[in-house]
Amino acid sequence: MSAAKQSDEKLKPVWRAAEIIAKRLDISVKVTDNVIEMLEEGATIPFIARYRKEKTKGLEVDKLREISAGSEELKVVENKIATVHQAIKKTGKLSKDLVESLKHAQSLDEVDTLFAPFKPGHKGTLAERARKLGLEPMALKILDGRSVDLSTLVNKNEKSLKTVGDVEKGIQHIIADIIAKDKGAIQQARNICSSNKVILECHKCKNTTKAASVEKKVVDSKKKDDSYKYEQYYDYKIPVHYLKPHQILAINRGEDKKVITVKIVIPEFIKNQFISFCQRKWCRGRDNTYIENSIEDAYDRLIVPQTCRSIRSELTKKAEEASIKVFADNLKSLLLQPTVKGKSVLGIDPGFSNGCKSAVISPTGQILATVVLYLHDHRSNKSKEKDKLIDTVIKHRCEVIAIGNGVGCRETEKIVSDLIQSKHFKPLEVYYSIVDESGASIYSVSPEAQKELTDLDPTLRGAVSISRRLQDPLAELVKIEPKHIGVGMYQHDIAEGKLKISLDSVVEECVSFVGVDLNTGSECLLRRIAGLSSAKAKKIIEWRDKNNRFINRQQLLSVKGLGQKSFEQCAGFVRILNTDNNSNSANKADSDIKTEVKPASRKRKTTTASTSKTKKQKMEADLEPNPLDMTPIHPESYHIATSFIADVGEDINHIGQQDFIQNIKSFLNKHDVSDLTETYSTGLPTLVLITEALTKTKSYDIREGNQKPLFKQGITGIEDLKIDSILTGRVTNVTHFGAFVDVGVGNDALIHSSKMCTSKGRQTLHLGDRVQVRVLNIEAARKRISVALVDIL
């Protein structure tokens, strides 16, 4: 290899990303390698989770996301190592020890620490200054155990070398630098970080000057003082190992606001362990004052500050990851709430002087009527406004009223509840539900809303969104940026980029796993399907508008800009529903589309006449409907599904019918699926997916088994509650310290994490869960209710 080529070679770390991630997540390196390889090839997480279980050993989506995030993070570290290596090399100060330290660095903090002395404008470390004075050869002799005479280096004309003490100090700095950059010492520092004996201490900040006090008063006059929120951390000590994510983020926030000071305290015995390790390595059993002093200097001046920064950085990183996970879990539970089918819904966006904006939505999501009800305005005729509400409900036969949980919710709920109780909606049996309206106002003025609800006043669009959120949460909430949906906590303390990537991934997962009808799905839904994008979703809509409808999944390959890779990723997640394969109407639609598609195919670029003919023949073949397109079975497995159905003795055109399902189940009762894998030359996960898909009805929805929204007819106030009362409610938010539950009194109750045990043991709650709770404490003035979990219903 030439010298020029060698100098340009990118420095590679000694570690492999798959091995580090596998250790962190406690999974096999082989599986991690497989996942990283598929991600690099362009596979999406939903596709890997559903259709590549043989390679992932059935890893859950959350684990796949962690592997993806870990891989991206370590790529950044690897690139930073290479960049820093080249930058230091150009200064001519690159040493063998520094190269080794860079190779072993596993985080950006470690790389930045190594690079800091070489940044432009930096005066250089004490060790660098000592090296410039020519002290390094003597320092290396001392490390080799040779005897030295430091007086020979004394130079009265050099400020830093005037005495033997000055020379000794310079040599000590060089040796300390060598020790601090040693890979063994670095590993010892990492061991310190993982020790559960390291303590975090917090104390209240003290304003020591009059100026500081004056400044605080000015700030307080402009902004509400919220320092009371951090009182629990004014004199606080805890092993870092026991810190909860919400505590870490709160402590960081308090420190940023100058309310508290924070420091990491490392026990003395850890220092002794580090010194003993270094003495064994460099003193080799001999007494050497120079080295012993350098070891202590390396620890106090270099290792401890770097380790404390690493500990704080790692704590913040883990807290952010945990908070993002809670946010993502809550979002997933919200998106996967069951639909409310077959009912007209009156959505009410409560308000006072501006009225309650209301919209009636049909069972299919169409707007039937809009009205503004001045139920709380003292200037209005409230009796007349209530009559308008009653007439609207009866006229459109609304069995469900969805009330937004914003300002005026409680007052509106009371009016609706009173009307229900007094039978004003007879003969209808009317229920109401409180719907989280987070993001509805943002949606109402968004380009998406303007495009979808062009002729509707923006103030009424929120009511439409509230109604549709109850009818089909997933289809409506995909129109809103996930961070605005309001199901997390501490999102303002988390890096926005990280949060967006994670939440977008959750939305993609939910939309993909639920599936989207290719002929009715909105652009908002289609662009969230794995393998698709906004541009590709628009092209699909355009193709659908031009050609009337899709007959089968294979026709996606006819959509401009949607290639084989995109088709592979999205095909299993889109559906062709309501296709009657045996009807004349299907054949007519088939012929109609042929007349539309043929001219389009002729416009395509072709290299030869035979290629054009092949494409034309392929298009003709693609126009046949395929009943498997109604299922989550991927086209790559159609040959297996077809063979299996034939072996059962069933007709593929009967997929989804009760007799078909019963025959499939009977066949499976007689044959173990694992015994059939060799017959069909496929893995067990793929065969299980196929057989499960064939035992579902056409209308099956994975959301059906989840907790339904809480429907109510009556209202209770916080003043009506009593200690030890048993209440039923729905989980509205989950955090690290507990879960909030709507118990129907206008204010959510808190189940602290320590109160989540039932007779069945400790429980894990998810957003949307129906629960039974016991009232522990009521603070009516502060509107706080503490409850304990009794059971999950």
UniProtKB/TrEMBL annotation:
GO cellular component annotations of the record: cytoplasm
Entry's Gene Ontology molecular function annotations: mRNA binding; structural constituent of ribosome
Composition bias type Basic and acidic residues, residue spans: 589-599
GO BP terms, alphabetized: nucleobase-containing compound metabolic process; translation
SUPFAM superfamilies referenced in this protein's UniProt entry, alphabetically: Nucleic acid-binding proteins (SSF50249), Ribonuclease H-like (SSF53098), RuvA domain 2-like (SSF47781), Tex N-terminal region-like (SSF158832)
Region (Disordered): 584-628
Ranges for domain S1 motif: 724-790
Described purpose of this protein according to its UniProt entry: Associates with the EF-Tu.GDP complex and induces the exchange of GDP to GTP. It remains bound to the aminoacyl-tRNA.EF-Tu.GTP complex up to the GTP hydrolysis stage on the ribosome.
Listed name of the protein: S1 motif domain-containing protein
Organism: Patella caerulea (Rayed Mediterranean limpet)
